[in-house]
Amino acid sequence: MKRWASELGPPLLGIAVLVVVWAIVAAITDTSAIPSPADTWAALRDGVADGSIPEATAKSLIRLAFSFAAALVIGTGLGLLLAAFELARRSVRPLVVALQIIPFVAWVPLAVIWFGVTERAVVFVAIAGSFPSVTLATLQGIRQVPPLYVRAGRTLGAGGWSLQREIVFPAALPAYMTGIQQAWGFAWKALMAGELIVPAVGASGLGHLLDSSQDVAAILAVVAVIAVIGVAVEYLIVGPIDRRVRAKRGLLSAA
Amino acid sequence: MSSAVTRTREHPAGSPAGPTISVRDLGMTRTLPSGERMPAFEHLTFDVEHGEFVCLIGPSGSGKTSTLAVIAGLERPTHGEVLVEGRPVTGPGPDRAVLFQEPALFPWLSVRGNMDLALRLADVPPDEREERAAMWLARVEVDRSADRQPHELSAGMRQRVALARALACDPPILLGDEPFGALDALARERLQDIVQRERVERAGRTTFLFVTHNVREAVLLADRVLVMSAAPGRLLEEFRIDAHRPRKLDDVLVARVVSEIHDLLIGQLEGTSS
Predict the structure, then answer these.
(1) Is B123 left (phi over 0), alpha (psi -120 to 50) or beta?
(2) Which of A8, B13, B22, B113 could form a cystine bridge with B83, CB 3.0-4.6 A?
(3) Domain ranges in chain B?
(4) B106–chain A Cβ distance below 8 A for any pair
């Protein structure tokens, strides 16, 4: 109980301060362009009540899961390939760095031309926005493997594939996970950008709701949902996995 | 990975039983970051006989660690060659287990997991692995920590696990690269005791070659101590030690050889420092 209070206290305090400042600004300016926290809360309740927000959330999460899974497979595969061949690594790595720098929205026009106004275009934007950082995470992870482990593994009789599987991959995991924490966030942001710009075909995602809402309070409510989902994925899924990987290896400083 | 020698102890029919490790005119030149080329060691020639315990000792910079890395197959010499059971070393292999200065346990595996991986890589059948791992962990007195992760153990315990991991695969040769150099005095003594005991128990089954800069350790453990010169390292002198085991540091013979080697090494340091 006490631990929960000390862990959750400061973040809750931060949110409370934000809401208070927001309420004061809304009260002073008194325009419809800046709705009060109460108005936004009401809009959120309406959106939940009429089913639009839950439906869009579910749709976006499914798209996130699919596109990030694809980005993991493509990004890790390419990373391993580049790690294995030095010439390939030296020639392709700068291109991957360049890909990572391209803003997510720059992919949207291309996606629409290639895939039309479809769900596939949206998923493409999310994959394109996140796989480069998965590739770079893979390369970084493998580069940071301590040489001592490789030497020890080789003297124990590991070599070729068994050296990769038994020594290099597990030793690369902590640095890989650090990159993954960044990569999934890219996937989520790119997905929202894609949904916002590519008009909805069939089911709307959260990004679509941003565009279809004329009401500022409704837009803010959706922004809040997007942020909360981001925080939830970080704190409930990616963060704990990363902590487990580190704790097992003694890489966490004592709490 | 092909190993340079077979794991059997028999010599091929008709061939004479030669030394287990034969170092022939070995030398290595290092390229410094400045681009300057400097010999680490040169013209090193020595044999290690079957079942013998040899310690290679020398001032820092004498290239003793590099020598061991070449014998382990982890580095390539500039000239000369190393024969193990008569065959040239071309790479590392489980016939030459290595104890590094740091324990080199894999941090993602538990103590038991580290043992199991080593036995698996040495092609020990699955039903034998668990039993062997447990037996060896008991021999180095870490059996009660078998399910812990390496980072939860003390430095001395980690190095004992590394020793168990190396010996569990029943290697014909155990190479040690200052394996106890980073330990505190008590942990080091304990490991020295264990190694002395294993030397006696494994008599003939395993050949030991340790590199150290600790003269007492060398005299305590070795049948023969090879003293290397300051850089570039050459073989300076060899001491044969026939004292009974287990040896203690205050044994008269041990103490005498220690002081002799000390004098020799100090002469080396004075010779190079001016």
Answers:
(1) left
(2) B22
(3) 1-91+223-274
(4) yes
Name the stretches of chain A with pLDDT < 70: 1-2, 200, 202, 213, 253-255
The mean of the pLDDT values for chain B is 86
Spell out the residues 6+ positions from residue B7 whose beta carbon is closer than 8 angstroms to its own. Answer: B94, B95, B172
> One-letter amino acid identity for B227?
V
Residue B14 is predicted with a pLDDT of 37
Tokens of B41: 């060691």
CB contact burial B211-237 (16+ within 10 A = b; e otherwise): bbbbbbbbbbbbbbbbbbbbbbbbbbe
Per-residue exposure over A32-59, b if at least 16 CB sit within 10 Å of its own CB, e if not: eebbbbebbbebbeebeeeebbebbbeb
Chain B contact set for A170 (CB, 8 A):
106, 108-109
pLDDT in tens, A39-91: 889 888 888 888 888 888 888 899 999 999 999 999 999 999 998 888 888 88
Q: Which of B10, B185, B233, B118 is nearest to A153 (CA)?
A: B118
Locate B267 and state its tokens. 């002469």
> B104 and A170: CB-CB below 8 Å?
no
Phi and psi, residue B202, nearest 5°: -95, 15
Question: Contact at 8 Å (CB) between A134 and A238?
Answer: no
For residue B109 the two structure tokens come to 């595996």
Q: Hunting for tokens 């927000």 — which residue is that?
A: A53
Q: Do A148 and B104 touch (CB under 8 A)?
A: yes
For chain A, the residues whose C-beta falls within 8 A of a C-beta of chain B are: 148-149, 151-160, 162, 166-167, 170-171, 173, 248-251
Q: Identify the helix (H) or strand (E) that includes residue A74.
A: helix A52-84
